[in-house]
Description:
Elements lengths: L8 H7 L9 E6 L7 E6 H10 L4 H16 L3 H28 L6 H5 L4 H9 L8 H4 L1 H6 L3 H30 L6 H15 L3 H21 L7 H14 L5 H13 L5 H47 L1
Antiparallel strand pairs: 1-2
Helix pairs in contact: 4-6, 4-9, 4-10, 4-13, 6-12, 9-13, 10-13, 11-12, 11-14, 13-14
Amino acid sequence: MGQKRDVSEETAAIRSGSSAPSSTSKEVGGSKSADERELAVLSDEELGRIDEKLKLRPLAIYEIVREEGVQELARPVTSLWWSGLTAGLSIGFSILTEATLRSALPDSTWAPLIANWGYSVGFLIVILGRQQLFTEITLTAVLPVLANPSLRGVWAVMRLWTIVLAANLVGTIVFGAGIALDVMHRPEVTQAALELSREAMAHSWVTILLRAMAAGWLMATIGWLLPSSEGSPISIIVLMTYLIALLGLSHIVAGSVEAVALVVAGEQSLRSIILGFYLPCLAGNAIGGSALFALISYAQVKREIEETAAEGRRSEG
């Protein structure tokens, strides 16, 4: 995500100004009338600073995310599997950290406002560690197919999603079982984790579906914002994932840790969590991240892509 950004038309105009007082400066003329004309002299260093301050255009962000999607779709199965398994284990630290904070805080209305910050820990490990997380690739995997629709592309997306999701869930099964069995011998943390799990599962499938759509949107937003984060990805990841916890939204991978913990603890049946959590949450995350965010993101740059392609054909002709 560290690709060099294009210089905007405004800066390009500055660089190609008609007047050049010296080899290291350019003149920019901007006026409402000939009598009021003012000339601004900018050095190459100043022009370079302008380039650094310019924000990435949506088209540039789209291209960065799309190219990442192309790379992910081309990765071998073994690489995807082990990266996804690692992510499933890592995301468990979101639940464990939040439970640890909750167990240390008094039982008050403001306690969740602090404990929810712990939810971001696992996502920081996963995203900064470049591990494969299902909800993070719902956007990146879809954009290449939207740009060049084909059955082969759809198959590649389904292959990527299936491998990563399966690997994520295997990791969460291991971590969730460890929490329920109190392998760390922290009974107060285990009880807090089970309380979080009960709260997460205590909703109808419709509610979980809708909350999962919102969570999918926020996770896709992370992927869209990171290219223009300018060296501050941590703040973006923490803010978006904190919102997921604060609003009680449903995330298929993090929520799987909670669901498994309840099954191992004997409080839920496997059938109930599959029908009541996994299916609606999976559908909601996919809809929010792919069908909604990806389509809207592509729609805002589609015209620019077509115009750029048309200009390229004209120049070749």
